[in-house]
Amino acid sequence: MSDAFTPITDMIKDAETIWTDTMQALRTLQQTAGATLGETGIPTSFGNDATAFTAAKESAALIDRSHWGVIELSGDDRLRFIHNQTTNAFQQRQPGEGCDTVFVTSTARTIDLVTTYITEDAVLMITSPGQDQRLMDWMDRYIFPADKVALKNLTDTMAVFSLVGPESESLLGKCGIALESNAAYGHHHTVEIDGVAVRIAKGSGLSLEGYTLLVLADTADTVWTALTAAGAVPAGETVWHQLRIQAGRPQPGTELTEDYNPLEAGLWHAISFDKGCYIGQETIARLNTYQGVKQQLWGVQLSTPVEPGTPILVGEDKVGTLTSILDTAEGPLGLGYIRTKAGGAGLQVTVGEAEGTVVDVPFLSRGYLAEQNPEIQVGQGDL
User: Is residue 203 domain-resident?
Assistant: First the structure.
């Protein structure tokens, strides 16, 4: 089978549908609160970006991620199937557990980083925006007649919220929800908020404290109202993008492309090296065993803004490429891939007209590369 990729622009175009009728109440509520809606119907800003960004770091911000995909995998063979399709281990997973995992091609090129939640009768997957149908089609290629597996795209019927910040747990407590403070990442269960059933999971989707909430789209406005009334500061897609780059979470089309594998992308926390065969396993195992990771994703603190795609240089030698950039209070911060032999955190580089310093970012993990460089902390991907 071919590993050809659908162009990212086509996938984004496919995802750009204005909200369905089931989301109308939520969108009206958000617009009343000052939201500017983007092409996908998701708020880009509530006119409070600085306040919302601070809330995500110091209190609690509420971000609508309903343009992210939601896929349901059901059937008796569901755990075996996802185990064989992606990088993490699933055979021994129990209902209530969750984890990140990566879809890769047969040559271990990244397709998408997804978060999975194991329920009593299904596996729920949250995909990156615009990736849901792509992954549905990808998995469907590997379902054989004897497989007891069924796929269902729930994206249009589900809302996904991230509650981000150190006060997220106490804020949920105001809504009558008791949580296990020491629960593992991905641990989830169903609760009620103002009479509405909500699946709530540990982890914000970033390297910041928080929770992910899944709720039926036609009741999402009730949950949004309850959380903001309890003190959550609404935040738009602009703030999510800022937090994503500061954390170093890679995304399809920039850091997750056919040019990179998940080890280079810093997704070691989403890979099991003890499981059996899966798509791309041979390449990933060989890179780990023979320590063959040739480039790594890093943060790059810059003196002036430059465009993504600009080469990263050490002296006159090209050592990498900038993939994303963000303007911060400390100056522009970018993400980029840099050759392993060139160095890591602390490396001085030139990117276009800017001078830069390579910095670690908390979402990423580095496996044996961190062991070789004790000053590099192994990221946990999320809290």
Answer: yes
